[in-house]
Amino acid sequence: MGFFNFMVNAGKKLLGKGDDNEAIKREIKESFSEVPIQGLVIEVDGDSVLIAGVAKDSATREKAILIAGNVEGIAKVNADQLVLLPEITPEPESKFYTIQKGDTLWKIATTFYGDGSKYPSIVEANLEVIKDADLIYPGQNIRIPELA
After folding, report:
1. CA dist., res. 64 & res. 33, Å (int)
2. I need a surface site. Which of 16, 106, 122, 139 has the fewest CB within 10 A?
3. Which CATH number fits domain 95-144: 3.10.350.10, 3.90.180.10, 3.30.70.120, 2.40.50.100?
4. Where in the sequence of the chain do the CATH 3.10.350.10 domains occur?
5. What's the pTM?
6. Tens digit of pLDDT for each residue in 93-106?
């Protein structure tokens, strides 16, 4: 689980306004209430981003990948060097989904959970990407967490 593909022409406009590495690094750090990744390193190379460091858990790792990939101009995220602290009980790996034209969170929740009313679980798992549950965009990549 090292390379992730994203739509290069979709996402937040952060690149080309100075130091691209720092822009994405700042976006990741500001999206969490505490520093989630020890030794976070970001290297932008064209339309690719390398993320390195030690994430506190799988959810943090996945969110950092999504934040970096949901930047306009980024097509690939290499997370081979973004490792996890050893976990006592491994968390189930989330599914990733690219939002399509005509999608709603209700429709996505129905597809993955069989119940549209479970869409708040998707919003909660993607607060760094979904700022408003009524505003999702084709091309955004989101996590679909396992339900408890």
Report:
1. 13
2. 16
3. 3.10.350.10
4. 95-144
5. 0.70
6. 778 999 999 999 99
